[in-house]
Amino acid sequence: MNKIEHIGIAVKDMAEAKNTYELLLGTVAYKTEAVPSEGVNTVFLQSGPNKIELLEATSPDSPIAKYLEKRGEGIHHIAFDVDNIEAEMARLKAEGFVLLNDVPKRGADNKLVCFVHPKTANGVLVELCQSIG
Fold first, then answer.
1. What is the CATH number of the domain that holds 124?
2. Residue 40, Cα to own-chain centre: how many angstroms?
């Protein structure tokens, strides 16, 4: 793993959260994107080398909606940049980590992604991210 790629924050109201984080970070969002396969709308902000991904559910049965219902707004996941997501997935499986998907899938911000189950990462949902092309 190379670095922290971003921190994902689950929010109930994207417009309100976007405004809050733009004021907090003193910058404007650089990307808004829907990820229909995950039932989520995303907004990305960057301050220096640090990125924040805001996540808003698009349907009541999406993973983010379920997360918000159970835990409320707040940090949802931490994402790490990797050079070769398939090799990293194989390495983590060999180390005993449980992955939430067997193959990488397309995520937001032009990335291939895979999630590590929080039960095997001390309660933290970990995302692996590899830039596409």
1. 3.10.180.10
2. 10
State the residue range of the domain holding 94. 3-131
* 3 state SS for 33-60: EEEHHHCEEEEEEEECCEEEEEEEECCC
**C-alpha–C-alpha distance, residues 34 and 133, integer Å:** 20
pLDDT tens per residue across span 35-90: 998 899 999 999 999 999 999 999 999 999 999 999 999 999 999 999 999 999 99
Residue type, 3: K
pTM for the full predicted model: 0.92
